[in-house]
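Need tokens for this chain, all 205 residues.
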Amino acid sequence: MNRIENNPKFKFSMIDNLMFSLSSSMILLYIEEPNWANVRKKSVELNLAQKATLSSNDRYVSEALSRLRYLTDSEISYFKGANDQEQRYLLWIALCRSNRLAREFAIKLLRENFLNYKNKVSLEDYDSFYFDLSSSNEELDHVSLKMKSKIRGRIINTAKEANILSKDNFIQPCFLTEQFCKTVAQNSPQDLLYLPVYEADIKGL
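Here are the structure tokens for all 205 residues:
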């Protein structure tokens, strides 16, 4: 199996949150015919994004596809038989692999708070995290306040839709099955750390 490498770039063009329904439908198309170009074409033709205009439909399909490409074929096969929660975890992992900002959020804010028994992520926490991250990544300083606020909302709301954060921003610990862990770890065991879990709980699985 070819290892999927994380995208090293920050992305600020998130146009939606977890995109669960659209992504699930596109994954089913990929299982039928494992060709992302054809999946994209069919998804637009079928208006899977359920948008009023062709251009909007195309944008949403492109956004979902930009994340789904970061799932391995093993993870996609697992997705079909997984329960709703595991499916959401996989889509969160795909986002983290595809977008460095989401990945940094998962590791440096969500996970650090979790390990330090700080069971909530506030907007102030996010702003401090972003400020610290921008000190070593100059490109983050050039993002407008409006875009910073928008991407903050997208990432936090995506974590909520993945049930990693509650509606009140409390961190929800993940209880992972052995098969889920093995499937994700085939690509990289470190990818499991995008979820609020203790390393001791996943070692040896």
